[in-house]
Amino acid sequence: MPSITRRRIGTGLGSLALGAGLAAARPAAAQSWPNRPVTVIVPWPAGGSTDVLARSVSRNLENRFGQPFVVDNRSGASGNIGAATVARAAPDGHTLMVTTNGPITNNTLLFRSMPFDPFKDFTPVSLLAELPIVIVARNGLPYRTVQELVAYAKANPDKVNCGTPPIGAVAHLAAELLMYRTGIRMNVVPYRGSAPLTNDLLAGSVDIALDLVTTYLPHIEANSIRALGITAAAAVPQLPNVPPVQAQGVADYQATGWIALLGPARLSAEIAAKLNDACNEYLALNDTKALLPPLGLTPLGGEPADLTRRMTAEVELWRPVIRSANITVE
Question: Would you call 228 exposed, middle or buried from its count of C-beta atoms within 10 A (0-12, 13-18, 19+)?
Fold first, then answer.
């Protein structure tokens, strides 16, 4: 602090008084937060599960803290545009982000260059929810479980046509992970969106597909397609009789999307703690528990450190898979 040196504040009493004043200023700033509307960036278009959850969380935070929490959808570049906006924002707690894992973990492996560093440019606040993926197959095929699919694919390399959402989406990576863990070979075809993929699956143009549970739940319930496995570590309430992939003999298999709340780097620990407490209380509400399953979401929660660990584990999970499949997004 050059100004202190120039003023020659050198006595022990003066130094102690100054230190006490600075220490008191930090909590005071946190206590006055928020003192104006808070912008909650969602780096995806309006209407999806992430956007719906972000708006629900924001309403709860608005009621709790007494200031508007305004959702701002900034989509583009697989989430990088909105995330970069938050990375450049002032760390005063008035700009936050609710995002899936893509921009803050997977994109750093998929893009040759990134406009931010996920581990240096954000402050993890809270895990919110998980988005499990379901593996489904069209009717009439000789496999009804993941074990039977793997056995068939091993006996018939490159014979299984597998449709997924766009390149780099979690469901696409989940298909690549299945091949990486089991050694099978499938023809993986990434589609531009869920609607054309679903149409081709129902028409028999692809054999299996991976996407969010909510995408295929109506068709599973109508027996138009069959569910083979869930990519999460545990079964989901929407499909309680569909076992996880790793419970069907594929070791170390877990591939899910997840949603989290983050702020810019250097967000104060006091503000992050306030937000984290509020998010955990929100996730425990009965209204929240009723909201999430129809969106295909499973509540998470926990401490900021849990989000940091999840981010680190996610990068370590996908790095060898993405390198092995030579996947890039530009």
Answer: buried
